[in-house]
Write a structure and sequence with these properties.
235 residues; alpha+beta; MARVEL domain-containing protein
Length: 235
């Protein structure tokens, strides 16, 4: 059966899709929790502004606030891709059954192919949205953040609004020390890895979508020749 030459190998990118989705969700959750709870967001920066009254350089108490849409989109993309991969694996096993190839099972067959197409397309779109937000949420200052500096009680206070990538790859490592700087470096590597993993997820999702769609088309166009009953044997 020609369609099996497409459907059979489709399990490989489908399982790979599942593993990548699990990795994406796990790493994103890890750096989300770590950056929110375990790595300091506030730093003290000595500026070049000399205070004649105190005869010292002013200290800027800077706090980093994260822009959440980029991380939220990444988590959503990972979960949707994971759901798409699970759907594709279930569909693969069901579509391999001989009983699914009958006219009576046409509705079930169409449902599972359509489910794979819709879920993988949705996962790919979510991953694309996540990848786009990594760039569109970037700020306009030298660190890739948006800054707001206030004077409170004679002290400088800057609020920086950054994506996690800009915060932990550009800004915070310059001012953190010791274990905090090391943890920030890990968070940076994870955010960059997940950003580019979205591109791999998009490609993988489209491959799975294409393979299931092609096998469905081949199954439909060859149905008549596969279901013709053999002529009776002559005695």
């Amino acid at each position: 059966m020609l369609y099996n030459k497409i459907l059979g190998p489709a399990l490989v990118p489908t399982v790979f899709f599942l593993l990548l989705s699990l990795v994406s969700v796990a790493i994103t959750t890890h750096y989300w929790v770590a950056t929110d709870w375990f790595i300091p967001h506030g730093v003290r920066i000595t500026t070049n502004d000399f205070d004649d009254r105190t005869q010292s350089y002013r200290t800027d108490y800077t706090i980093v606030y994260f822009k959440d849409p980029e991380t939220d989109a990444t988590i959503a993309a990972g979960v949707l891709c994971l759901a798409a991969a699970v759907t594709a694996i279930v569909a693969w096993f069901l579509l391999r059954r001989p009983s699914i190839d009958t006219q009576f099972a046409a509705g079930k067959r169409r449902f599972w192919v359509l489910a794979v197409v819709v879920m993988t397309a949705t996962g790919a779109a979510a991953s694309l949205a996540s990848l786009v937000l990594h760039y569109t949420m970037k700020g306009n200052d030298g660190y890739g953040c948006d800054s707001e500096t206030l004077m409170m009680g004679g002290k400088l206070n800057t609020n920086k609004y950054c994506t996690r990538e800009m915060a932990f790859c550009n800004f915070l490592p310059e001012w953190l020390e010791g274990d905090d700087r090391y943890n920030a470096s890990i968070a940076c590597n994870e955010t960059v890895t997940i950003k580019w993993l979205q591109l791999v997820l998009i490609v993988n999702a489209l491959v799975v979508l294409a393979m299931f769609s092609v096998q469905a088309q081949m199954r439909r166009t060859t149905r008549d020749s596969r279901t013709v009953e053999p002529p009776p044997k002559a005695f």
